[in-house]
Every structure is written in C-alpha cells, then in structure tokens.
Amino acid sequence: MKQQIYEALLKIIKKENIHCDEPLFLHTSFKVGGPAQFFVQTDSVAQLQEVLNLLREKEIPFVILGKGSNVLVSDAGYEGVVIRLGDGMSEISHEGEKIRAGAGVSLAKVAAVALQKELAGFEFASGIPGSVGGAMVMNAGAYDGEMKQVVESVTLLDENGKERTLTCEQMEFGYRTSILKRNPWIVTEVVFKLQQGTREEIAEKMHTFAKRRNEKQPLEYPSAGSTFKRPEGHFAGKLIGEAGLSGYAIGGAKVSEKHNGFIINTGDATAADISALIAHVRKQVKENSGVLLEPEVIYIGRE
C-alpha cells in the first residue's frame, strides 16, 4: 500500500519533494514528534488540489503543516501524508495599503514587507513564529492584536477542492478560533488591509514587542508559545503559578519559570512528556482554582 501511495504521489509531485518516514521533530517548534509516513511539498495551488483529490479519493489521512509552531506531534508520528506548502505558495506582493500573501509565507515576512512599505497595523504579529495559513486557523494574535483586525479576505480550498474566497466577517474569527476550526478547508492566500504609517513608528513598535518577548518569554527553549488559551477573567500563567507548578517537570518537559504559561522542551523531552505535563497542569489548576485550562496546542499523529 505504501509503495502504491508513493507512486501515485510521484505522478503529481517531484521526487525530491516526497520524503518517506520523515522525522517531524525537524519541522516543529517543540522539536518533538515521530516520522510522517509521507512528507510532501506542494509548489502551487493546482498541485495542492491534485494531491488533495488523490488523498480524498483513496481515503488517505493528511494534514497541512505550516511552520509547526503551534502543534504537538505524537512520538509515534503520523500515519498518512503531511503536506507543506512550498515556494509557489509562499509568494508575497503589495499594492497600496494591501499585502497579498500565500499561505506558506511566515508572519515575520509579512511584517517585514509592511515595515518596508510603511504600512502599520501588523506590528503585533512580527514575532509570532507561524505561517499565514496557520494564523487564519487560530486567529493568531499577541499584544492586543489579532488577525481579525488586519484580514480583508481569505482564499481557500473547500472540502471538494473548490476555490472559495471569504471576507473577514465570513471567517468567523474569535479568540484563537475561526471557521477553519470547524471545517476541513485549506487556506491558499490572504489579503491583509493595513494603514499608512511611518517607518520609524512601525519599527519602534516592533522593537518594543520584541524586547517584551525576550524579557518575558523563554525563547531560548523549544516550545509552542503559550500552551493554554487565556481563560475568561484570568491569566493562564498566573493560575499555573498559584497552583505551585512553576518549574514543575515531567521528563524533559517543564513549566517555564520565566513564563508559567509556557511548557518548554529542556532538551530531551518526548511528546508523551509534554502531553503528560499539559494534563497534569490542567488537573492541578482545576483543583486549585476551579478553572479548566484549554490547550492552544493542536495534537497531530498516532496515539
């Protein structure tokens, strides 16, 4: 069966863009995760459509992996096809106050173009280590900013492989969620609507946010950023600290003392360590405060 899948993919994708048993720890910010049965790169929307049609027809599981910055991949890996969007889906252009970006573009690159073109409004995202496509799924945000504030439209492929374009309102953005959390649609391109600003003011905001990140977040360790969503009326990190969990560790996974809202990989953590620590933190915080924390991290792979 594996050989049949490989040969079918080979009819669509170049051989050098198909990898068998690819270690996913190489592609995630947590630096954990077992092998993907297939790891492929698609370089155009048309090619992505072909691959999706094949996988759906053959009922082969698949997942789109952006920058791997908000996921926890099982130690056992992924039984199916992991798709990464390649260069042809990582193009970026600008016209007036709008920036058009492929789903594979990093948020940092969008921020860099916004700075270069003196467009304000995207500064909050300059340090978020994710892709444009992934940011749409989670309505990524930081420092009181979120994608909802800057998105004009999102082009995607629906469950039938048909291209559709949704307005910002139709995306149903909410706190760390969107319509994409409830539908198996795949983002291909996003148009951002920003405002004219000055290079000096935009650069200063980006610098301020970067300074705050460096001071308050454990950026020297692999992590998936904030591990938990912010509970209404509370801060996850504060609740975790109050439960006496600052520095608590299971295997190589640890609650960061620098920011209790981060679970970090101290060097030799497994996905099982991280998963167990997330579960323990949720249990202890619930017992201590009555608040059940909800993970931001998306789980991928075999149990």
Overview of the molecule:
The chain has 303 residues and is an alpha+beta fold. The chain has seven helices and 18 strands. The relative contact order is 0.13. It starts with a helix and ends with a strand. It is globular, with a radius of gyration of 20 Å. The chain has helices at residues 2-10, 45-58, 107-116, 132-138, 199-216, 236-242, 271-289; strands spanning 18-23, 35-42, 62-64, 71-73, 78-85, 92-95, 98-102, 119-120, 141-142, 145-146, 151-157, 163-167, 186-193, 195-196, 249-250, 253-255, 263-265, 298-300. 28% of the residues lie in helices and 25% in strands.
Instruction: State Rg.
Output: 20 Å
Mean pLDDT across all amino acids: 94
Give the structural class: alpha+beta
Low-confidence runs of at least 5 consecutive residues: none
Q: Based on DSSP secondary structure assignment, what is the total number of beta strands? A: 18
- Content of β-strand: 25-35%
Q: SSE string, helix = H, strand = E?
A: HEEHEEEEEHEHEEEEEEHHEEEHE
Largest sheet: 5 strands, antiparallel
Helicity, in percent? 25-40%
Cross-sheet strand order for the largest sheet: 6-7-13-11-12
Q: What's the number of helices? A: 7
Spatial shape: globular
Q: N-to-C terminal Cα separation, in Å?
A: 21 Å
- Quaternary structure state of the chains depicted: single chain
Give a quick precis of the structure.
By secondary structure, the chain is an alpha+beta fold. Helix content is 28%, strand content 25%. The longest helix is centred in the last third of the chain and has 19 residues, at 271-289.
Helix-strand blueprint:
Elements lengths: L1 H9 L7 E6 L11 E8 L2 H14 L3 E3 L6 E3 L4 E8 L6 E4 L2 E5 L4 H10 L2 E2 L11 H7 L2 E2 L2 E2 L4 E7 L5 E5 L18 E8 L1 E2 L2 H18 L19 H7 L6 E2 L2 E3 L7 E3 L5 H19 L8 E3 L3
Parallel strand pairs: 2-5, 3-5, 4-18
Antiparallel strand pairs: 1-2, 6-7, 7-13, 8-14, 9-10, 11-12, 11-13, 15-16, 16-17
